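Annex B. Sample input.
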Amino acid sequence: MRVNATEYPKPLSWEMKSFSMPNIPRGTLGMKENLKTILEMVRNNISPSQRLIIEGSECKIDLGTACVRLRPMKLLLKTQTGWALSDEA
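Annex B, continued. Sample output.
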């Protein structure tokens, strides 16, 4: 069976692949601590437009972008007003 290349599914970006490490700033504290910081920001209802300030990182992303990158891991849920922690988080 031959499949036309135009019918192939579009590959996801690296940030959206759930089997890869999330593309979030690591800084000097490392990924675990910064993941905790991001999840705490979501729990505290910080605006998704709030820029992440990670010690030792020059990354210029906001909380909403970090949440989009973490969504495939099923840690966050998109809501009408922003983001919420999933049961797994």
